[in-house]
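Input structure tokens:
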């Protein structure tokens, strides 16, 4: 299931890039192929950059409650994680994004995510 979600997410990003490319080509009177090639380059740059990181998600009621990101090889017990806590409204829409002590920098332990005090980013 995770692999399908990742592929679907990547596909939606790609389609969005293509749509924006079409609009840009019309606006700047450039050929659609040159704009699409530029979009593809950007898409693959982003995908390569993301492979340098590992991601963790804790789910609650079908929604991500915590999301964490750290460089590959970092243990969950190391203070090198960027952690985000998401809060949802009654319709399941994400309404609030908070970080440990309001700090978005990667300096927290994923294994301790439940023990931090979360605030909006400073």
């Amino acid at each position: 299931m995770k692999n399908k979600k990742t592929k679907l997410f990547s596909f939606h990003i790609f389609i969005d890039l293509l749509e924006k490319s079409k609009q840009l080509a019309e606006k700047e009177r450039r050929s659609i192929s040159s704009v699409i090639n530029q979009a593809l380059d950007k898409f693959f740059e982003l995908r390569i950059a993301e492979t340098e990181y590992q991601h963790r998600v804790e789910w609650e009621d079908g929604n991500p409650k915590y999301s964490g990101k750290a460089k590959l090889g970092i243990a969950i017990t190391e203070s090198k994680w960027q952690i985000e806590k998401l809060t949802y409204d009654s319709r399941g829409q994400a309404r609030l994004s908070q970080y440990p002590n309001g700090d978005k920098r990667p300096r927290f332990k994923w294994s301790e995510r439940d023990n931090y005090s979360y605030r909006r980013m400073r």
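Helices lie at 2-28, 32-50. The two ends are 35 Å apart (CA to CA).
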